[in-house]
Specification:
Number of strands: 0
Number of helices: 13
Shape: globular
Helix content: 55-70%
Strand content: under 5%
Structural class: mainly alpha
Order of helices and strands: HHHHHHHHHHHHH
Radius of gyration: 18 Å
Largest sheet: none
Number of domains: 2
Oligomer: single chain
């Protein structure tokens, strides 16, 4: 049930949840996302764990979309669109991991001149982008009144068997810090209400935290660390 919810949330995040929508209608969202990723600033990228967090947001969304291709009753246009969306997720991850944005640039440059037939013929060369809201990037299910903490707990329960003990501890620590920030900003009660602006606020709080908080300030309340 939880896995199915993640799949449906991923489809909704990229506007691929309507089986009657045409490829052209779905694809109109793609260029905006490619341009958003190219223009997105991440001043905290080199902080501990942040590169992994940003990359994994795209990675987990891609995994859920791949599962959708394997299990959901999709139209041909949905299949075509989702496969194209997976390519842009890989391109976004490539920018984060290696600073290589050329695939996204090529996509934006080609977008207006590519019709459906040309795109099918050159699918291995083209990169497209889904409209991915930050909450969806984190693969948060969009069911009403689902707390952020419960989603992190669910994510850990579903993936713990694939993590080494050290990775599990590190992820739990990172998730606990994020949950604390969500609650500090009053965003933890309902993950469905989190917006892109909220994610930027969360990032700003992360940037204010001491780099060595885990060691020296592990038990210090967040409000004390952020106080004047």
């Amino acid at each position: 049930m939880a896995h199915s919810r993640h799949i449906k949330a991923a489809l909704k995040a990229i506007h691929a949840d309507n089986p009657t929508a045409s490829y052209e209608d779905m694809r109109k969202h793609l260029r905006d996302i490619a341009e958003w990723e190219l223009s997105a600033g991440r001043s905290d990228l080199f902080e501990p764990d942040m590169r992994d967090i940003y990359r994994d947001q795209y990675g987990e969304l891609g995994e859920n979309l791949t599962d959708a291709l394997a299990s959901e009753p999709l139209s041909i246009d949905q299949h075509r669109y989702i496969n194209e969306a997976l390519k842009v997720l890989k391109a976004c991850m490539k920018r984060i991991e290696a600073g290589d944005s050329q695939s996204l640039i090529d996509y934006v440059d080609r977008f207006d001149g590519i019709d459906r037939q040309d795109d099918q013929a050159s699918v291995s060369l083209s990169v497209s982008a889904p409209e991915v809201k930050p909450a969806a990037l984190a693969a948060l299910a969009v069911t009403p009144s689902v707390t952020v903490a419960s989603l992190f707990e669910q994510y850990e329960a579903e993936n713990a068997q694939n993590w080494k003990p050290a990775t599990l501890r590190e992820n739990q620590s990172s998730h606990a810090a994020l949950i604390e920030i969500f609650d500090y900003l009053g965003l933890g009660a309902d993950a469905n209400t989190v917006t892109r602006a909220d994610v930027l606020r969360i990032r700003d709080v992360l940037q204010q935290l001491p780099k060595n908080r885990k060691q020296r300030f592990k038990d210090a309340p967040l409000v004390d660390l952020l106080g004047p």
